[in-house]
Every structure is written in structure tokens, then in C-alpha cells.
Hints:
This protein is α/β, with parallel strands linked by helices and 336 residues long. Helices cover 49% and strands 7% of the residues. The chain has 15 helices and five strands. A five-stranded parallel sheet has the order 2-3-4-1-5, with helices on both faces. It starts with 8 loop residues before the first helix and ends with a helix. The protein binds zinc ion. Zinc ion (ZN) binds next to α3. Its EC number is 2.7.7.7.
Amino acid sequence: xxxxxxxxxxxxxxxxxxxxxHALLVQGPAGVGQLELAVKLAQxxxxxDRAEGQPACGHCASCKLFASGTHPDFQLLLPEAxxxxxxxxxxxxxxxxxxxxxxxxxxxxxxxxxxxxxLLAFAxxxxxxxRAKVVVIFPAEALNGVAANALxxxxxxxxxxxRFVLASHDGASLLPTIRSxxxxxxxxxxxxxxxxxxxxxxxxxxxxxxLDATGGRPQQALSWAEAGLTDAAWQAxxxxxARGEVQALADWAPPRAIDALQRLCHDLVRRAHGQPGQFxxxxxxxxxxxxxxxxxxxxxxxxxxxxxxxxxxxxLWIESLVAQAQAAVTASLRAA
Length: 336
Ligand SMILES: [Zn+2]
């Protein structure tokens, strides 16, 4: 498997020892390897040549089937919109998604009940290799209400050798009935040094700034770098936005633009209270004299974020966001 994230070694070892339930819930922030941890656990439970409490050996017949994406006792349940990218990042075979066509529905971000019904058939079948059957569901909060309800009974009383690993970065939005059937397995942010080293091995230049930009989430930092964001461009953002430069965000998808502005607003409020920046280098940030206009802007950004997936006209929308940002920052720089 490609995705060897060095900071998962210890959490994996702990999980193999601590797992008591047939259903685990890996919980923590996005972008730190929840899916990878869940999949490593699955591979380990299916491995046919490992010592008790040890991770998968990587070379037995089961591990080879697993790596080729054809293990008959393993099911990975993902929303359609995530499927190809997630399998690719895990080094598993995947089908290229169809190019978006007019009139065709966008791939869903939800895990739907049909997918869960297929899973139930797998759950009832006998284990092909006789060791275990493992289902990984990611992200668990993508299960829509009907799908979650269809899963409940099996999650509570799985037949024989069946085990579940659910992974979630939004545990609060999971149905309590799902949460209460799983043993929680928290996954924290990795150590900064380990994250920086890994980003460097992935070819990210000057990874410190991007790691900070993402609040310490190395996978997210890598995906931003792969999308073309550099440390220099990120650090230039606050002042460009303060000048009202629409170009600063013009190439960004609306959800990412909103996310960047929310991080900027958060840091400017910190500066207004004399604290250093969290997502941006302090030197990259203007020095607001009062937080009130920023707090009003924050509320506007939260409202806008709800519609970020479907703005009617993305470039007009970005233009108005930048104008709003400029006005808020300018007002915050004036003495009360
Ligand atoms: Zn093995």
C-alpha cells in the first residue's frame, strides 16, 4: 500500500491491543490519516501471518489479496464522490470517475442505503478465507439517515467473524445510535516534526507554512500543495485580500476560498487581541486595532459557507466575498 503514514504506527499498535469491540470508531480531525488507520486495522485483522497484537505482515496470501484490492473478506464503503480519489491514495485499484455530463447528477457525497444493502449481503455471507470479514466505512458521517438505520442491526449484532471500522472527522454529527455501538478510537494530530518530515518526502517545499495553514494536518497540507498552493502565495493572501484583490482567490473553488477567509478572519481576531497568527505567519497579517468588524465578518462568512457548494455564479460570489473581506479588515484597522 502506498499510503504509509509514519505517525500511524503507534496508534495502529495501540488499536490492535485495545480493540475489544467488533465495531471501532476512529475519530479525530480530517487530514491526519483516519481512513489509512482504518484500512491498516482491516488488513491486520485479515493477515494470516502475524503475531498477536502485531500489524499486518505485508507478504502473506491475505496481505497480497488486500494490496491488490481483491480480498474477498474486505469491503470499503465510501461516498461516490470520494471513491476513486480515496482508493487511489490508498494504492488500491480504482475506476476513473466519468467526466461530468450535462443533465447527469453529480456524484453523491452521501453513503446511500443501496450501498448499505449490498454490504448486508456481504455481512451475511461466510468468510471466504475463514479468518475475519472487515468493513471499513469512511467518512461515517456520510451515511445518510436511511443508510445509517439500515446498518444499525448488523452493527449491533454482526454475524460470526464480521468486524467494522468506522472513521469520522465529525463525530458530533453521527447518529447517537451509531456512535453508541462503536468503541471509540481517538486519532490525534501527528507530531509536528513527523508531519514535516513526511511532507518533505512527498516533495512539498517549505512545508512549515502549509502545515500551519492547515492547523497541523499533513494530508490536507499535501493536497493543498498538490493543488498548486505555495507557502509564499498563502502568506501573501492576507494583504492581497485586505487590498481587495479578487485575483488572490480567483482560481480557488468556492468552498476552499471560504475556508481560507475563515482562517484569515480567525487569525485577525487573534491579532486584534495581541496573539500571534495560528494559520498565517504573524508577519503576514495586518494588525487590527479592534475585533468588532471582524466578528461581524466571521458571522457573514459562516452564513456564506452554507452555500459554498452551490453559488449561482462562482466568480461574482468570490468578488463579493473579497469586497466584504476588504471592508471588514479596513474597518478593523481604524482606531475605535
Ligand atoms: Zn499478512
